Amino acid sequence: GAAMAKSKFEYVRDFEADDTCLSHCWVVVRLDGRNFHRFAEKHNFTKPNDSRALHLMTKCAQTVMEELEDIVIAYGQSDEYSFVFKRKSNWFKRRASKFMTHVVSQFASSYVFYWRDYFEDQPLLYPPGFDGRVVVYPSNQTLKDYLSWRQADCHINNLYNTVFWALVQQSGLTPIQAQERLQGTLTADKNEILFSEFNINYNNEPLMYRKGTVLIWQKVDEVMTKEVRLPAEMEGRKMVVTRTRTKAVPLHCDVIGDAFWKEHPEILH
Ligand code: ATP
Ligand code: ATP
Ligand code: MG
Ligand code: MG
Ligand code: MG
Ligand code: MG
């Protein structure tokens, strides 16, 4: 505190580097699971997409948005999530290390805390870790391009993985054979293999797998039953109460085109 006497050791604080994020810019924290290729194997993730794992990731991201300040949108796919802090945020004086460490530690502890709710009969075998990075984007266009980049990555990986695992699980190819079969193929070729060999129309695959998950703040009517205390003759009865809360709501929509941003102008305002 201000009234506290300073010791002669206080000068060592000057060795701390200034990591203030440039003002008026969007601050993005992206985290990613450490060695989740192995983590997925050890915990018997369904291939190519384990929906329990994706829902757990989203629960952790919602917890981050609700516990921390100033996050306006988040986007997740696979073992990664990106969090966007509002341009004008002055949380922790915009120190990059504070943004990043609070996001990553809150996310990691939530992943362990909520594990059992999503993986009922799959025990957590060891403590997972996540890396984090901070990137600052100077304009709405660069921020939109950042999110488009992550969603394009989701699409490319998911299309590849969908064909790869169909070849392995349904055609009995070894992983090496499946990889060789897909070497040099274009998007159209992969769609064609899926359709002609497996009768899969890629566009009918679940949106969560193809688009990832966008979290934005929306007003939600929450219906809950409440124990009635008074008057005495009604004691012990339950009453249905509706109240409106603002929550981080998951969407599996396209963010590359303009439609999403036109529909939600408040995000970038
Ligand atoms: P690094 O530590 O460098 O990030 P990594 O093994 O985590 O290494 P990533 O590129 O992050 O590599 O890839 C994450 C991997 O985790 C995927 O390739 C996939 O094998 C696995 N994975 C993550 N989420 C899921 C999921 N929901 N369903 C199935 N597999 C998943
Ligand atoms: P911030 O988020 O800014 O760090 P804080 O409440 O964590 O806020 P700190 O300056 O880090 O503030 O102080 C940690 C506080 O946690 C202590 O003041 C004390 O109240 C409590 N605390 C931490 N460890 C112990 C402990 N072992 N026994 C009792 N109290 C503890
Ligand atoms: Mg990586
Ligand atoms: Mg990873
Ligand atoms: Mg990853
Ligand atoms: Mg503290």
Automatic annotation (TrEMBL):
Keywords: GTP-binding, Magnesium, Metal-binding, Nucleotide-binding, Nucleotidyltransferase, Transferase, tRNA processing. Belongs to the tRNA(His) guanylyltransferase family. The lineage of its organism: Eukaryota, Metazoa, Chordata, Craniata, Vertebrata. Binds 2 magnesium ions per subunit. Its cofactor is Mg(2+). GO terms for molecular function: GTP binding; magnesium ion binding; tRNA guanylyltransferase activity. This is tRNA(His) guanylyltransferase. Mg(2+) 2 binds at D32, D79. GTP binds at D32, G33, R34, N35, F36, H37, S78, D79. Adds a GMP to the 5'-end of tRNA(His) after transcription and RNase P cleavage. This step is essential for proper recognition of the tRNA and for the fidelity of protein synthesis. Also functions as a guanyl-nucleotide exchange factor/GEF for the MFN1 and MFN2 mitofusins thereby regulating mitochondrial fusion. By regulating both mitochondrial dynamics and bioenergetic function, it contributes to cell survival following oxidative stress. It comes from the Eukaryota. The gene is THG1L. One of its GO terms (biological process) is tRNA modification. It catalyses: a 5'-end ribonucleotide-tRNA(His) + GTP + ATP + H2O = a 5'-end phospho-guanosine-ribonucleotide-tRNA(His) + AMP + 2 diphosphate + H(+).
